[in-house]
Amino acid sequence: MGKSRNTRRARAVVEGVVAEVDGGRAELVPDRDRPRAWTLLIDGAPQSHVDLDDPARLAFEYQRRLGHVVDLLAPPGRPIEAVHLGGGAFTLARYVAATRPRSTQQVVERDAALVRLVRRELPLDPGARVRVRSADARAALARLPHGRADVIIADVFAGARTPAHLTSTEFLDEVRLALAPGGIYTANLADGPPLSHLRGQIATAAARFAELALIADPAVLRGRRFGNAVLVASDRPLPLAELTRRAASDSQPARVEHGRALTDFTGGAAPVTDATASASPAPPPSVFR
Hints:
The protein is of the alpha/beta class.
């Protein structure tokens, strides 16, 4: 009987894990090339990739770009205080814990059922200082201590769309309150032609932060396809030269826009407020094929 249970367990690992969560149908799909690596999908849309044997490995291009921001935030190995709005499979929190031991982190993920699934199937290192809260990202942000976070990473999607209330100047006012002086806000944005959402988000960030940069595939910036773009914002000068070098040398090269070129890219878009906010556009079905 014990052998039968072990056989079923082995088959479950090979075939993956499927569960209903608050946000839809979650799937944990095993990586064929790495024995303890998994991709999390929600309703068929890839959300996160985690390698339990190598948490410093970032498989998704947008996550590597967020990783570049974390790497350049402070000298290598120095602990930081990080807030992750949007949890997924806690990929970036695992990355920070692996590359910056003794960092203090808080992950905010609204989907409580997803949190339970990830904790059970892809447990965090018990030695990592990562606190996970099941709450709305903006509500949790408003309760954070002021002036403490070195970095706030926003990667929040509901049904493959960023909720409207996380796209406004009022939301960024709360981000600024939580950030330490000179702290960095970085966000994973998704858009496609005509890039109205992306332009509006840059204008919104420009209304609240002195320094901005955008990391994206040139094809996305030219409006040729739907894709991700990583926004970086701060009141201190950004490490643009090193960000540019890392983005360009990635296995999926990206461009870093900043300064006048980024201002021109917005095309006169107005900052988004709570009164005018809308969710990011839904990706076309072809994106996930």
